[in-house]
Specification:
The protein is an alpha+beta fold. Helix content is 20%, strand content 53%.
Length: 76
């Protein structure tokens, strides 16, 4: 049976929401193995001088917890 864990993260892009999501997935995958899903909780923007300056996404990243290494049986 797999055990999953999730972490909430915030990612940003000056290009688009889709790019912000891809940045999050790419970066998270560099430090965590077994990434299974990314659920977008919220999307927002920052505005500067009447224009969108950045696209932000708040994501729930879910990944599998690796099983504990089993202890080797001692030989007699």
């Amino acid at each position: 049976m797999a055990i999953m864990k999730s972490e909430q993260i915030l990612a940003e892009s000056t290009v688009s929401f889709e790019d912000a999501i891809q940045n999050a997935v790419s970066r998270f995958s560099k430090t965590v193995r077994g990434l299974a899903s990314a659920n977008v909780n919220n999307m927002s923007t920052t505005v500067k001088n009447g224009k969108i300056a950045a696209y932000r996404v708040n994501l729930q990243m879910t990944f599998e917890i690796e099983p504990a290494a089993s202890k080797a049986k001692k030989s007699r």
